[in-house]
Request: fold
Amino acid sequence: MMRPVLNLLARIGQGVMEALARLGRWFVFMLGLLPALPASLLRPRLIVDQLYQVGVLSLQIILVAGAFVGMVLGLQGYSILATYGSAESLGVVVALSLVRELGPVLTALLFAGRAGSALTAELGLMKSTEQLAGMEMMAVDPLKRVVAPRFWAGVLTMPLLAALFSLVGVLGGYAIGVGLLGVDSGSYWSQIQSQVDFREDIINGVIKSVLFGVVAVWIALFEGYDCVPTAEGVSRATTRTVVNTSLAVLGLDFVMTALMFNV
Amino acid sequence: MSDAAACVAAPESMLEPLIEIRNLSFSRGSRLIFDNISLSIPRGQITGIMGPSGTGKTTLLKLVGGQLRPDAGEVWVDGLNVHTLSRRALFALRKRMGMLFQHGALLTDLSVFENVAFPLREHTRLPESMLRDLVLMKLNAVGLRGARDLQTAELSGGMARRVALARALILDPMLVMFDEPFTGQDPITLGVLVRLIRNLNDALGLSSILVSHDVAETLSIADHVYVLADGHVIASGTPAAIQADTSPWVRQFMQGLADGPVPFQYPASSLQDDFRLPPLQEPSS
Amino acid sequence: MRDIWVGLFVALGLLALTLLALHVSNLLSLPSGKGYFVTAEFDNIGGLKVRAPVKLSGVVVGRVESISIDSKNFRAVVGMNIESNYSIFPIDSSAAIYTSGLLGEQYIGLSPGAEDAVLKSGDRIALTQSAIVLETLISQFLFNKAAEGDKK
Reply:
C-alpha cells in the first residue's frame, strides 16, 4: 500500500535534487563567465564572427515575421477600431503593441528558435567532440575564447533585431491600413507620433530586448556548455534551450511590463 | 616503482622522471577507477599505457593535464605538483604539454592551417610571416603541408589525427600525450602514425605518453609499458618483458583471449535460474 | 564578405532604432526644455493626463507637465510647458479641456485674449473651462427636461 506513495516521494526528491544540481551548475557557469566577459571585448574579431552567426543569419526570419505580424495587426486592429469609428488610431495600436510588447517578445522567441538553438547545438557539438577539452589542454579558456564572444554577440544582436522587427511591423501595418483599408496616411503617422512616447515606449522596449538578449543567450550557452556530450544529450539540450528561453522571456516580460508601464 | 624504472635500459633513465604519479586514487561516482597507483614517466622516451577499455587510461591523461582532480595522491610534472598550481601556473604548464585527443578534437569552424596556428595565435604575437612558416614546418613534419587549406570536415580520421599532432607540437612542448591514436585506422594510416610518433619523439627530444589498447602497435614503439586493470598497475616493463610476462591476466590481454581472468560472461544469475530450467538431475546411467 | 554582412546588419539595426525614435515616437515633439511654464486651475480635469498636448487652434504648442491639487481651494492645478517660440499669449488668454473625437484623448486648448502683456514663466491662466464630463452633461440634460415638463 505504501509503496506507490514512497515511490512518488522518491521521484519528487530526485527531481528536486536534479533541479538543485542544475541550479548549482548554472551559478558556477555564471561565475565563471562573468570574469571572462570584459577581456573578450578586446578581441572584436571574434565578436564580429559571432554577430554574423547570431545576427545576420537571424535577419531573414525576423524581417519576414515582423512584416506579417504588422500586417495582421493592421487587419485586426482596423476591424476592431472601425466599429468604434476611430480607424485613424490604427497606427497607434500597431506601433504601441509592436514597440512595447510584440517587438521585444516575438524577437526573443524567434531568436531562441533560430540563434539560441544553434548556439546550444554548436557548443554541445564542441563539447562532445572534445574541442572544449582540447582548448583547455592548449591552455586556452573556452569560456573566454568561445562562450564570451557569443554572449556579447547575442546581447548586441537582440535590440537591433527587435528594432528591425518593430519597424518592419509598423510598415506592414501601414501597407495594410493605408494601402488596403484606406486609413489616411497622414493620420496614421501623426497619431503614432503624438501617442508613442520616446522614453516610456521606445526606450523601455529597447531595455526589454537587451534584457531578453542576456537571458536568451545565457540560457542557450549554458545548455550547450552543460549538455551531456552525446548526440542525444545535444538534442535534448537544444530542446531545453527553446523551451526554457520561451518560458523565461514570457515570464520576465510580464514582470517588466508591470514594472515599466504602471497601468 | 624503482624496479620499474630499472627495467628501462636507456641512459635517460638516470635523469629524474618527467612525470611522477604517487599513490593516486580517483573515483567517478561510486566506481573506483584508480586505487592508489604509482607510476613514473621518464624523459625522452615513449611510455605506453595499456589496458582494456574502461580502465581509465584517458582519465589518467586528464589527471596529468590537470583537467580532473584526484581524490588522493599527487601528480608531479617536471617538478610541479599539478593539482596545487594556480590556474595561471597550470595554463603555463599546459603550454608545455601537447595532447592528442582520440578523434583529434580539431576546431570545426577553422581550416587545417588555422587549427595548427590556433595555439600560436592565442598565446603569442608573432608576425604573420613567421607564424606561417612555423605552421607549415609542423604540417610538413606530419606530411600535410599540402592540406593546409582544407576544412576539418574534409579530413579523413587519420589525417585529422596528424593535423592534431601538428597542432600539439606547434608550441614545441616537452611532453605529448596520445589518447588512443590508433583506434579505427587502416593499416597504412597505422604505419604512418606509428612512424610519426616514434620519429617526432626522437627528433624533437619529446617525452611521449601513449595510451592505447592496440597491443602490436604500442609494443612496437614504446620504450616502456604499463598495463592497467581494475584500478591497479598489473604489469610494467619493456615491451619484451611484458610479452614474456606469465601472469594469466597479462597473457589474456596481450594475446586477446576471449575467456580468462576477465570472464566472457558479464556477471549474471546462474543459467538454470535465468532460463527456468528444472534443477539438474543426477546423471542418469 | 562576412564583415560586410555584419556591417550591414548593425547599420540596418541602428537605422531602425533611429527611425523608431524619430518617426514612430514623439521624440521630435518632446519639449526641448527651452519652454516656459504656466499653470491653470480647473474645477474638473476629466481624464487629462500628464504629457497631454496643449494646443492653440489645433497646433500643438506645449505639453502638460504636472497635475496636482491646490490644498486650499481643492481645485486641480495643471502645469504646462509651452514652447518658447510661442511666447505670444496675452495674459488674459483662457484654457479649456477638450476631447478629440468622442472617445479620443483629452487635451488643453488655449484661446488668446486681447491684452498687450504676454504670459511669462510662472504665470497662472485665470480663465479656465473644465472638462465636460459626460455624466454631468446627461444629468443636466435630464434635469432640464424635467424642469420643462414641470412648466407645462
In short: Residues 1-14 of chain B have pLDDT under 50 and may be disordered. Residues 121 and 127 of chain B are 10 Å apart (CA to CA). The longest strand of chain B covers residues 31-41.
